[in-house]
Amino acid sequence: MVKPKALIVVPSFQSFIVQDIQLLSEHYELIINHYNWKKKELAPIYLIRQLFHLLVSISQCKFILIHFGGYWSFLPTLLGKIFSKPSYIVLHGTDCAAIPELNYGSLRIPLLKWFCKKSYEWATMLLPVSNSLVFSQNKFNNPNSTITNGFQYHFPNLNTPHTVIPNGFDIDFWKPGENVRKGQHTFISVLSKEQFILKGGDLIVQLGEKFKDYTFLIAGMEKPENLSTTKNVYFLGKLPPERLRSYYQKANFYFQLSIFEGFGCALCEAMLCGCIPLGSDVNEIPVIIGNTGLILKSRKIAELESEVNKLLNFNIEQNTDQTPRNRITKLYNLENRKKMLIKTLSNN
């Protein structure tokens, strides 16, 4: 049986994008359009190359699926409209946000915001990974200042329909280790160098000074050269999935202390591996955690210290909800995303 063709446009190959490619390849023959859009000075050249690639490919394809809104989503949605090909944009977070004080969010850059706006207008449907990317507000960073984001906030006149399709996770890969003993008082978080403050890396370093008998692990980045830390704070660098899973399996707790978080993939992975979560009161984080962990209401070190002390005595058996692993298995397993994604793409 010949598979129908589909055009996939991606700016990068994060694990969740690779995962979607693998899911869709079971049903479609995929034509992948990718350039290194991080090299912003080459964006005009990439747009020209993309135009020719799309003109050659688009007539063969049943639909166009784009990950993230950005410069790369402009031509695919425009040509999709011209050639009557359905186009979908999976929204992940930065493409729905503008937080200038933290240098975060595609929509803080006027030209990039315009490219996103036109892409969202021309798209057949938007597929945000959480409700918070439609509209969200929080005062986590500053009780006197509300941070508001979401594509409905930034583009109030946008009429493009949307369907929330949450991320999904491989519950057979992300799982507690057999005969693996969790380290006592071990905390882990996943950050990047660019998002160190955004995701609370500075708070974790401060906790290291307060709780010197505890171990704090930061995966995803090397230690910044000018950052002074205590000996109980370890920077693990970027890790392949297997090694990251091993660290999750050995840790008691996971921190997701973000000021803004489109979804929280690492949070879900850690919960699947048996970590009890402590997350900030922003976006989808409280929904993901439910009653299986604790929520930090304000970005203050004194409040975080208090929540850490509570976390050490957190008895998962007292919760009528479920364990962290069971919650993610029920709400965000990979099969759920696959079914929702295939159904949505097949109905248009």
TrEMBL record:
GO terms for molecular function: glycosyltransferase activity. Signal peptide: none annotated. Pfam families: Glycos_transf_1 (PF00534). Residues 182-315 form the Glycosyl transferase family domain. Its EC number is 2.4.-.-. Keywords: Glycosyltransferase, Transferase. It comes from the Bacteria. It is an enzyme of class 2 (transferase). CDD domains: GT4_PimA-like. This is Glycosyltransferase family 4 protein.
